[in-house]
């Protein structure tokens, strides 16, 4: 049986692998505790999603957080990879 620590370790490894396959996204235990961030910043991907949920436009996000359109695009692509890439295979 897999314990909580094992799942946390696997989850971190999973995100690191996907970040390496993604443009403009970084996952490092030294930055925001390993949360996925826009490369070269401390802006996490979940913040960008929250902004979109709150009906901010991409232009507003870019202006408020000093990002480029490509940064937001890369963050969204990363989320798609997280949801589409199999976490484990049986």
UniProtKB/TrEMBL annotation:
Pfam families xref list: DUF433
Q: Which domain of life is it from?
A: Bacteria
Which species does this protein come from? Calidifontibacillus erzurumensis
| InterPro entries xrefs | DUF433, Homeodomain-like_sf, WH-like_DNA-bd_sf
Record protein name field: DUF433 domain-containing protein
